[in-house]
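user: can you give me the structure for this one chain? tokens are fine.
assistant: on it. calling the predictor now.
[tool input]
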Amino acid sequence: MATFEVKNLQTEGFNTVYAHGGEGQDEAVFFLHGSGPGANGLSNWKKVLEVMGEKYEVFAPDFVGFGNTEIPENTDLTFWQWTTLRVKQVLGIMEHHNIEKAHLVGNSMGGVISMHAIMYDETKFDKLVLMGSGGGKTPGPTPEIIRMKGFFNDPTIESLRNLIKWFVYDETVLGDDLESIIQTRYENLMRSGMEELYPTLFPDNPMELLIPPSALRRIKQKTLMIHGYEDQFVPVEGSLDLLKHIPNAELVILKECGHWAQIEKAERFLELVDQFLTDEMKVLSN
């Protein structure tokens, strides 16, 4: 297993915390976490970094508003301003490490940020992996999403434990990691200022999360989508909608899998991502 370090970097006037491993490898991959309560780079991607870091230079930032990244002085931002700030975190890390081009792997909100990064500067990014990604049309906010956004209506560790269980199809796959994930995330949530900040990190109108089809069809990067069939936070219809519009894309749907394919179907997830990044995508022609 590869090792990684947790590092700090000043980006856009605040301190960004990120995990970094596989230094010196030829290709760089950024693993971008979602917006769940207490989310951060390591709780989403630790085991993935240990494996992928043997072959790639890997990064997992804590996005501003999450994890251990510093809360900026100005938090009066729209959802899209937060999104652009997170794109600039990725670009700042790339510049600091002299990385000209990187692959992106985004989960949930991390998928939305990945697509916005490509819209911001498509020359900086090669292949794109979207896992349980937002950005596509779904039947509407699920009860799980509503409870997630309203976490501070009942900010107890018991409430967080329920939410974390709902992220997966079967929580037994988390094993002994379950309580450590809950504890780490709860500590992040209880940081000073988070109760006021957390509700502002989500758009008031769910339609704001959608990436316009006119933007999706301009994504030229080869794209792999991975989605758990039983995902209760971003229903699989979201990836089916993205598939309609992203030109060079394929979708793999995993049964008995919720929102965290990288944990629930770890072996298959790693196999799919590595094969996708290594091989040219085989596109069937008519």
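assistant: here you go. Residues 186 and 256 are 27 Å apart (CA to CA). Residues 4-277 form a domain with the Rossmann fold fold (CATH 3.40.50.1820).
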